[in-house]
Amino acid sequence: MTNQASDRYVSSLQAALAGGQFVFTGEIGPPKGVSVEKCLHQAEQYLKGRVAAVNVTDIQTAVMRLGSLALSHLLAERGMEPVFQMVTRDRNRLALQSDLLGAYVLGIRNVLALTGDHVSMGDHPQAKCVYDLDSVGLLSAMTMLESGHDLGLDSKGAPNVLEGSPKFFKGCCVTPCTEEVAPQIIKLEKKVAAGAQFVQTQAVYEPEAFDKFMGEVRRRGINAPVMVGIVMLKTVAMGRYMNSSVPGVKVPEATLDRLAKAAKDDRQKVSIEICAELVRAMKPFCQGAHLMTLGWDHCVPEIIRQAT
Amino acid sequence: MIVAQRKPIDEILAMLAGCRRVLVLACGGCVSVCLTGGEKQADILASQLRLAAKARGQEMDAQSDCITRQCDREFFADLKADPAGFDAVLSIACGVGVGYMSELYPAVRVLPGLDTTFYGANVGPGQWQEYCHGCGQCMLAWTGGICPIARCAKSLVNGTCGGTKDGKCEVSPEMDCGWYLIYQKLKAAGRLDELLAIRPPPDWAKDRSGGLRRMSVEELADLGKE
Ligand code: SF4
Predict the structure, then answer these.
(1) Which of A263, A275, B136, B145 has an alpha carbon 20 to 30 Å from A75's alpha carbon atom?
(2) Ligand 1: which atom is nearest the Cα of residue A118?
(3) Can you list the pairs that B62-65 forms with residues at least 24 positions away whose Cβ atoms lie under 8 Å?
């Protein structure tokens, strides 16, 4: 899975971004249960060979399901490079560091550090929130493991020493189109200082706002490659829902209108066009696009074709 | 102050099943200020208990009393009646009072009438809000006096998550985003630089993870020995 990885790069994703090509990544969500064949098959059919890496979400929206480590491993076994998403909501620093070591020995190199949606948003709202580390803390933990130590201290107060250290390509997330973007950029700066080497963004539907955001990011000297988040707009209702309820996501009325006016049979075609146009419009300001097709994985090849 | 809420009456009745003589014991401290565990609330609760028992064709001798504080040994001397004479004492102090009294009177069944909820302040008529979590490592110096442990739903220490919207938290549109408040405060004070420092993960051993927390003030401890 790390066929392009060399001594300099720990993963194909890192190599591709460093190589200056515009990079696409995809995303799959593990099932609620143990039937993994369907999502693995979809990934194999529509993502393999087309995207540099495939993100595996980690108990997304706090809805209990199969873990991202297991599915990342299965993807790797089938020749697809995973981006192992890790949220800090459910595990303390012992479990997070241990799972990072586990991921490494299973051949997983790309890790995306996330805070994770609050448990109140999911299907186990009575669960205890952990958040022992925040996303900055998780990135620091990865950097620490890479240095051959962990976050703990021995009896003399020195960091514990590992028997063999991992090496990751460490990512983080940012929300570029929120009303107040400065706090997001301040946090991004800290994530990069803590070790983040690439950035994936929340969904963007406004290229001008993204352009402005990227200008500010680069002005502050944050030079990590940024992959813009593209969430496939499947229905007008979904767009309206995002506008009212999803923080930092704004779908312009014109975009919604376009989808609304399309004949029913043409909707998917128009959704694909919208994605591809967004990628084309934002390509000059960033290094890649992270495609989140929400189950419409079969659209990925066409989005990439139209966007390139 | 410590804020506590009255338990639902059905839960209280279930706890008191089989009790004939009950003392509802108020506390003159925090819980009287938030109008859940004071003298008046004890009187009301005692009469509620008598009525509820009557409605079920039973008899309950529910009396009420109030002491200055249930977290200090000396005030228990003011009790009007010996607690041992009751089938149960329903304490409407915070959990500290219930726990402390249970320890002082091992033979007495002390039951909680309140759910102890948070350390808060009065923010409007009849309104209390959490301000502190008692994490044992106060960080208010660099957060503009706004606690990220208590007021961010995820207790994050390095700034906002992606869930903040119009200044509110992803958990509820009625809840301010703690990190939004911190950001606005530091911005107004011209101290946004504070936010750029990477804050290490909190030492949760100073919070609940370290087990029972105790404090001793040496001067007082020495006085006690004399
Ligand atoms: S929205 Fe604000 S208060 Fe809520 S969890 Fe995120 S940072 Fe914390």
Answers:
(1) A275
(2) 5
(3) B62/B22, B62/B23, B62/B24, B63/B21, B63/B22, B63/B23, B63/B24, B64/B23, B64/B24, B64/B25, B64/B26, B64/B39, B65/B23, B65/B24, B65/B25, B65/B26
- B162/A118 touch (CB, cutoff 8 Å), yes or no: no
- Ligand 1 site-directed mutation target among B157, B170, B182, B185, most atoms within 8 Å of CB: B170
pLDDT digits (tens, 9 = 90+) for B37-67: 999 999 999 999 999 999 999 999 999 999 9
β-pairing, B127-132 vs B114-124, is: antiparallel
Condensed to tens digits (0 to 9), the pLDDT of residues B184-203 reads 999 999 999 999 999 999 99
Indicate whether residue B169 lines ligand 1 (CB < 6 A): yes
- Give the closest-approach CA distance of A79 to chain B in angstroms: 32
B156 lines ligand 1 (CB under 6 A): yes
| Domains contained in chain A, CATH given | 21-167 (3.20.20.220), 203-308 (no CATH)
Sequence letter at residue A78: R
The tokens for B138 are: 């106060």
The predicted-structure confidence for A222-268, as pLDDT tens digits, reads as follows 999 999 999 999 999 999 999 999 999 999 999 999 999 999 999 99
Instruction: Give the domain range for residue B76.
Output: 2-118
Domains identified in chain B, total number: 2
Cβ-Cβ contacts under 8 Å, A117 against chain B: 163, 170
Residues B53 and B155 both lie in one domain: no
Residue nearest to atom 6 of ligand 1 (CA): B161
User: Is residue B124 one of the residues assigned to a domain?
Assistant: no
- On whether residue B129 sits in a domain, the answer given is no
Distance A174 CA to ligand 1 centre (A): 14
User: pTM for the whole thing?
Assistant: 0.95
Shortest alpha-carbon distance between residue B53 and chain A (Å): 33
Q: Is B164 in the pocket of ligand 1 (CB under 6 A)?
A: yes
Q: Is A109 exposed, middle or buried (0-12, 13-18, 19+ CB in 10 A)?
A: buried
Distance (angstroms) between ligand 1 centre and the Cα of B127 equals: 22
What is the distance between the alpha carbons of residues B32 and B38, in angstroms, rounded to a whole number?
4
Please give, rounded to a whole number of angstroms, the shortest distance from the CA of B1 to a CA of chain A: 25
Determine contact, residues A202/A248, Cβ cutoff 8 Å: yes
The count of residues in chain A is 308
In this predicted model, what pLDDT tens digit does every residue of B134-153 receive, in sequence order?
999 999 999 999 999 999 99
